[in-house]
Amino acid sequence: MQTKFIFVTGGVMSGLGKGVTTSSIAKLLQLADQKVSCIKIDPYLNYDAGTMNPVAHGEVFVTDDGGECDMDIGNYERFLNQNIPKTHNITTAQVYSSVIEAERKGEYLGACVQIIPHVTDEIKNRIRGIAEDEKLDFLIVECGGTVGDIESLPFLEALRQMRVEEGPENVLFVHVTLAPSLDVVGEQKTKPTQHSAQELRRIGIQPDFLAVRCTLPLEEKTKKKIALFTNVTVNDVLSCHDVKSIFQVPQILYDQGILDSIFKKFGIVGMVNASANWDKWNKIAESMINHEDQKVRIAMVGKYVTLPDSYVSVNHALKHAGAKLGKSVKIDWIDSETITDYEIFSKYDGILVPGGFGTRGSEGIIKTANYAREKNIPYLGICFGFQLAAIAFGRNVLNLEDANSTEIKEDAKNPVVDLLPEQKELSDMGGTLRLGANEVFIKQNTIAHKIYKTDTISKRHRHRYEINQKYISEFERNGMIFPADSDNGKRMEMLEIPSHKFYLGVQFHPEFNSRPGFPEEAFEAFVKAASEK
Ligand code: GLN
């Protein structure tokens, strides 16, 4: 079978949950035993998400192959429980770089190089290349931005061309819009959806489905009105109302007949019976919503706390762990720059410090890590949270004067954390951190080994600094152990304090490997320790 394409576009405004809609449609097809994957198009001019501020754009999601991707790639991985390669996050910069490079090589044979066809061809080649290489039954492509944006036009144009070239029986469009109600019981308004569908038609795209975000289920009369004005059959106007957990979205779309309709439009007969898949998935989706009476309170401390999306994978990983343990994890985000009284942490069951960069807010984190150690509060430090926990120990237990990371203080007297040697000559900031999956070796008879129950794990990385080997024996003599390393012992990957209730730091990013139903081990151990009184 040739790959069928589903293109997801966005209308009205950003932040409606296109990523969840895309992932949910992909999940339904996967549950029907189809081979699926997703692509995220980001029309911005950055080459990748790596250099963007997480508070403005959300988390940078790191893939196994070292991509610094849009956080929607994380949604796809979590919904599908499958790794997504970095080529699945296409940006304007990547497309234009290839076109310009080809032009310089003289590959266009004297032609005037233009957006149509050269840029649109490059976009189509990338999408088709993935479909072919991975032999997919279905490829769901989410185009970032909102229809009407200047930046996304070349991408939408490429998708429009693909419908003509692949044939309408192989391409469907889903448009995600909003039906706002002005108050809780108010009428659901259809005009933004009407206009947005019009805008899409103006550039030659007729949506096949409308996924309409709303607080309460879309009323029948609203569906009918939308259908009438947008040229979409009423059955294909889908209510995407608020639900407790995003993992319920596949079910609500399924209940409205989306899967039958997709198969019918693609001319696929005899839908696959996938009830066993559904049983497994329903158990996982259900486990994500209950347990309200069993709360575990976690303080998440960092400087990117104004936007919870900055740490979206960490939030998810905590919830996955809670769901498996029958607990509901409540997360409070605490700005490390503004803490004055560390006693606020006494009311928490656990403290988590996620990744981060730069000086701002770092002193607050160091003091937090020290407080957790002194008060025997379960602590999980990820990447920056790992490095700063070592600094806190250096300062407060080993009395190392001016212990710091050279990222924070270049001339620190005791550089407990220092630049990776291979980074010393680098000048470019984009894509140059130590990125992606690396093998980590865990020593036996350690807490880390008890957590992972194996000698070798593969974990994703994103850092420029690491523990300075010079200090290791002094740390270990005084109770902070480094139970795991990588690159033939060159880098420390984990720290633990065996005498503590739970004090773990990891140089890698365990959050990117956590999936609903399959929480990452360090998170599970942390939440378990936090829930033990
Ligand atoms: N800033 C630190 C480093 O570059 C930690 C990075 C992170 O937390 N992702 O090593």
Short characterization:
This protein is α/β, with parallel strands linked by helices and 533 residues long. Helices cover 35% and strands 22% of the residues.
Describe the structure.
This protein is an alpha/beta fold and about 525 residues long. The protein has two domains: about 280 residues, P-loop containing nucleotide triphosphate hydrolases (Rossmann fold, 3-Layer(aba) Sandwich), CATH 3.40.50; about 240 residues, Rossmann fold, CATH 3.40.50. The chain is built from 17 helices and 21 strands. Strands 11-10-12-13-21-20-19-16-17 form a nine-stranded mixed beta sheet, with helices on both faces. The longest helix is centred in the first third of the chain and has 19 residues. The chain starts with a strand and ends with a helix. Bound molecules: glutamine. The site of glutamine has 10 residues, from strand 17. Glutamine binds next to strand 17.
